[in-house]
Amino acid sequence: MAWYAKWFDTPYYHLLYSNRDFKEAERFLDLLTEFLQLPEKSSIIDLACGKGRHSLYLNRLGYDVIGLDLSENSILHNKKYENDSLKFEVHDMRMPMAYQNINAVFNLFTSFGYFDDAQDDHKVFRSVSEVLQPNGIFVLDFLNADFVRSNLIASEIIRRERMDFHIKRRIENAFIIKDIFFRDQGEDFHFFEKVKLHTMQEIEQLAQQYGLHLRAKFGDYQLNEFHPETSPRTIMVFIKNEMKG
C-alpha cells in the first residue's frame, strides 16, 4: 500500500495536523474566490479534500462542491455534511473523474507530488483537464521547493494531546521526506510523507501539455506576490484553453 493511502487514512494523521488554522483557510478561500470571480453556483471539485474543511466553506460561499479523496475514513466522516449542493466521494486523483464541464478544480494544501512514477503526475493533470469546461480554472496550492530546501527543519518534536510526534526531515532524490515516529498505548509507530520537490517551471510545463496555462501565481495564503527564495507557498492558477476546431 502506498504511504499516502496508509497514513492519510489513520486518525494519527489528523491528530498531527489538528493545529491547522481554519480561519486562515477561510480567509484564503475568500481572497481566492474574489480573485477568480467564479459565477454564482459554479461547480468546484475539491480534489484530495481530506476531512472537507475547504469543501464545506466553499459550499457556504454558495458554490456547488464535490469533495474527492482517496481516504475512505475521511469521506465517511464528510458524508454527514452532504446536502443538495455538497457531495463527497472516494476517488484516486490519477483516475478520470465521473463529471464534465466543471467550472473549477482546487487541489490545496500540498495534495500533489506524492508519486514516484512521473506518469502518475501526468494522469492527474490529464484528469483535471478532462473534467474542466473550456476556460475552466485549476488551482494548485503546492510547496515552494526553493523555500523548503533553504528552510528545512531537520528534526523536531510536536506534542498533540499528550502524544509526542518525533519528526525527522531530509531531502533525497528530489523528494522531501518526513519520517514520523510516535508511541500510542505501548505500541511504536512509524509513518512517513514523501513529496516531490517540483519547481514552478516543472509544474507549468506539465500543465501546458494538457491545455492548462498559467494565469496567476501567488506566494502565500494572503495572495502576496510570489518570490522564489522567500515565499512559503507556490499557488498557481491555471486556465484551460478553449478548444477550437
From TrEMBL:
<feature type="domain" description="Methyltransferase">
    <location>
        <begin position="41"/>
        <end position="144"/>
    </location>
</feature>
<dbReference type="InterPro" id="IPR029063">
    <property type="entry name" value="SAM-dependent_MTases_sf"/>
</dbReference>
<protein>
    <recommendedName>
        <fullName>Methyltransferase domain-containing protein</fullName>
    </recommendedName>
</protein>
<dbReference type="Pfam" id="PF13847">
    <property type="entry name" value="Methyltransf_31"/>
</dbReference>
<dbReference type="InterPro" id="IPR025714">
    <property type="entry name" value="Methyltranfer_dom"/>
</dbReference>
